[in-house]
Amino acid sequence: MVSNALVHGTNVLEGKGLDVTITNTKRDAWDTIGSLYWNAGYSGGPSPAGVAQYLQGVDSSTNLAVLGASTVELIRAAIDRGANVTVFEFAPRMCEQLATALGARRCRIVKQDITQPLMNADCGQADVVCADRLINRFTLEEANSAFTQVLRLLSDGGELRAAIRLGLYARDLPLIEEGRRRGTLHEFFDEQQGTIDYGMAGDILEQHIAPHGQIPQATLLEFYRRRGPEKRFAHADIVHCAESARDAGRRLSVEVIHDYVGAPDDTFYRFRAVAANATGERG
Ligand SMILES: C[S@@+](CC[C@H](N)C(=O)[O-])C[C@H]1O[C@@H](n2cnc3c(N)ncnc32)[C@H](O)[C@@H]1O
Description:
Order of helices and strands: EHHHEHEHEEHEHHEEHHEHEEE
Mean pLDDT: 91
Number of helices: 11
Shape: globular
Structural class: alpha/beta
Strand content: 15-25%
Bound molecules: S-adenosylmethionine
CATH architecture of the largest domain: 3-Layer(aba) Sandwich
Strand order of the largest sheet: 1-4-3-2-5-6-12-11-10
Low-confidence stretches: 1-10
CATH topology of the largest domain: Rossmann fold
Helix content: 25-40%
């Protein structure tokens, strides 16, 4: 990883060149909302206590990766601790707006879809990887790919720290209820797979999405419409996805599961990169 000390002038924007083509159309949702996600009286990221939980034990010797540019407060705090920070982000506008939001703070910002193969140079580099409710944005297939890429990114013994919401979101409930009432639920919610796609809910979405701070309603609707299918995960799904990942004789072991400070609906997982044949106890 590039050391902060070597980075002068502007933040380093990279990612197979910033002109790399990201084919994952979910990026459009995030480019639609951009910095409004953290600048308009709405916060989808960790609370200050959550930031501290992510950064436990992190100091200037830590190579830390954050998945998702929208997790700005965590990125700022990690840079302020002196950690060597790399952000992986698939939405080009998000990459640029993070660089602006960081001002004089320095890190690498790599344009990368984390469900797609990482550059070899990034493999084995991160001591800690942070992903705040990112896995909630994935289908089961995307989650499986992402856990494999995160395992590739981690150094031996490195940790993935991830807050994950288990089960349905509260905002799913009125949509599901209305879809049931109208007989259109199957158009946007696969009950068997637990996969929801707000973009397929038509005017039900418009009627039931609550304001998010001062984000303009039209932008908010576009954001949700473009997010694509997302699985609502059970704990067993998460453990299965993580424990199925394999890379170069290594696997992810579920290390500890905590409450997520300041977010009672979420669960905070810590996974460790270990030798595939290692036996371990769960805390
Ligand atoms: C971290 S997630 C969820 C929001 C989060 N709770 C936060 O802290 O802001 C959202 C961020 O991840 C990025 N993202 C979503 N899917 C991605 C993917 N497949 N690869 C890389 N970045 C992704 C989005 O563009 C956005 O910046």
